[in-house]
TrEMBL record:
Signal peptide: none annotated. The keyword DNA-binding applies. This is HTH-type transcriptional regulator YjdC. InterPro entries: Homeodomain-like_sf, HTH-type_TetR-like_transc_reg, HTH_TetR, Tet_transcr_reg_TetR-rel_C_sf. Residues 31-50 bind DNA. The gene is yjdC. PANTHER family: HTH-TYPE TRANSCRIPTIONAL REGULATOR RUTR, HTH-TYPE TRANSCRIPTIONAL REPRESSOR BDCR.
């Protein structure tokens, strides 16, 4: 195995370990030494890849974004291939996410709340992630219900974000169903205008 492959494997192990720990226990609760121990790497290896914990946090969020986007796309496509409209598929996948036993909310909302610093690079990344997520949701609405329905997209985005938080705070996946029903009510109103 080449040095580059070992470096890649070590970096990936660090990211996967930190992502799992940050998501399940919180960014502030998990120290670098814990990440090093659970990833099975030397301290110098971690710092060669991530000069500071702040750098690691940012890279973990980038990694999480890739993983979440892939999860959403693959699972939605499966339902769409079965003939379902994209928005219906989105809400089914949202509910499935909430039903996962390890579900602990949105990594980006959690990071922003934990860091409590809008100027932190990870907070700024999280804000941009949410902007892109809302744009993607708007496109899903248009693809499913037409351009007039896009007028409801900002309110639906708020419903989805509220469902994400409610699902974790109440421990119930039904928040996805409630958000879906309200979203379709908003879309019906937007189409009548």
């Amino acid at each position: 195995m080449s040095k580059t492959q070992r470096t890649s494997n070590a970096r990936k192990r660090i990211l996967e370990t930190a992502e799992k720990l940050f998501y399940s226990e919180g960014i502030r609760c998990v120290g670098i030494d814990r990440v090093i121990a659970e990833a099975g790497v030397a301290k110098m290896t971690l710092y060669n890849h991530f000069p500071s914990k702040d750098d690691l946090i940012l890279e973990v969020l980038k990694y999480r974004e890739e993983q979440f986007d892939q999860f959403l796309k693959e699972n939605m496509n499966r339902h769409i291939e079965e003939g379902m409209k994209p928005l219906n598929a989105f809400f089914i996948v949202l509910r499935n996410w909430f039903e996962n036993p390890s579900y602990r909310g949105c990594s980006f909302i959690n990071a922003t709340a934990e860091l409590a610093d809008a100027t932190h690079a990870a907070s700024q990344f999280s804000t941009e992630h949410k902007r892109q997520f809302h744009e993607m949701l708007k496109q899903i609405i248009i693809d499913s219900e037409g351009k007039k329905a896009a007028a409801a997209a900002p309110a639906i985005a708020i419903l989805v974000e509220g469902a994400i938080v409610t699902a974790v705070s109440e421990g119930t996946p039904e928040a996805a169903d409630i958000a879906r029903d309200a979203a379709f009510d908003l879309i019906a109103k937007a189409k009548r205008r």
